[in-house]
Design a protein that fits this description.
Helix content: over 70%
Distance between the termini: 18 Å
Largest sheet: none
Strand content: under 5%
Structural class: mainly alpha
Number of helices: 6
Radius of gyration: 16 Å
Order of helices and strands: HHHHHH
Length: 131
């Protein structure tokens, strides 16, 4: 079970990395019409502060994920709070526009996060976080 947990954490980190690579590579531009790309740029400018907070949360998320690989209780708490705050921030981001590839990757990341939470809090693996 420990190896499954570590693989899920690595998969979750990798999926976020893929999302960043997709956005930086310009694949989104090929998958979305020009009108939606223009609207997407406007939304990012309109809600820029929330996106800056998201960047800070991303850094904390990476640190928390790396701490999870060591079964750190602080990492577990950080991962929980980063996830809760991220969900709360989505209410302030306004509408979002995403391409199919990014949306699939977000979905896979969310499923991995859910599995990580189950393993961290519900299974016998939770004892490893109490050291």
């Amino acid at each position: 079970m420990e190896s499954i947990f570590k693989k899920l954490v690595i998969f979750d980190l990798a999926s976020i990395g893929v999302i960043i690579l997709i956005s930086l590579s310009g694949i989104s531009s090929a998958l979305l019409p020009t009108e939606l790309l223009d609207w997407q740029d406007y939304l990012i400018e309109e809600h820029g502060f929330v996106y800056l907070l998201s960047l800070l949360l991303f850094i904390i998320y990476v640190v928390a994920s790396l701490m999870l690989l060591r079964f750190s209780p602080i990492g577990r708490s950080m991962y929980l709070w980063v996830t809760i705050i991220s969900f709360a921030l989505t209410f302030f981001m306004g509408p979002t526009i995403g391409d199919p590839l990014t949306n699939i990757t977000y979905g896979l990341s969310a499923m991995a996060s859910g599995a990580i939470f189950v393993l961290m809090y519900v299974t016998p693996l939770s004892v490893k976080f109490k050291k």
